[in-house]
Amino acid sequence: SDAVCPVSNRLKQARIKRELSQRSLGIAAGIDIASASARMNQYERAKHVPDYETLCRLALVLNVPVPFFYANDAEAELLLNMALLSKEQQTLVRNLVKRINFAQ
């Protein structure tokens, strides 16, 4: 289930957003051509969870931060939005969050 390990759902969500087939994503992430489609299918159906190294390669292809795969819905949205910001904007957001927490 999503609460236990959201990786499969996040992987599918990001792949569909990028309009990639399971096979093309797998190949782009360095998975053997012969098994790319089957492996990606198993990942998305949560039959297997990709190891961290594979997840890092998938994140690179999908242009998402690695923690996105483990995040709940609200966190995932925040991570994706943060990733779209420049380094300077990210620093501003982090400083704002610190100030909000400090003000409580």
User: Whole-Å distance between the termini?
Assistant: 35 Å
Mean pLDDT over the full residue set: 93
Instruction: Please compute the radius of gyration using only Cα atoms.
Output: 16 Å
Q: From the helix content, strand content and strand pairing, which structural class follows?
A: mainly alpha
Give the helix tally. Answer: 6
Query: Stretches where pLDDT falls below 50 for ≥5 residues?
Result: none
Report the helical percentage: 55-70%
Number of strands: 0
Portion of residues in beta strands equals: under 5%
Can you write the helix and strand succession as a string?
HHHHHH
> How would you sum up the global shape?
elongated
Question: What characterizes the major β-sheet?
Answer: none
Please tell me about this protein's structure.
The structure is a single chain. Helices cover 64% and strands 0% of the residues. It contains six helices and no strands.
Protein traits:
104 residues; 6 helices; 64% helix; 0% strand
Give a brief description.
The protein has 104 residues and is mainly α. The protein has 6 helices and no strands.
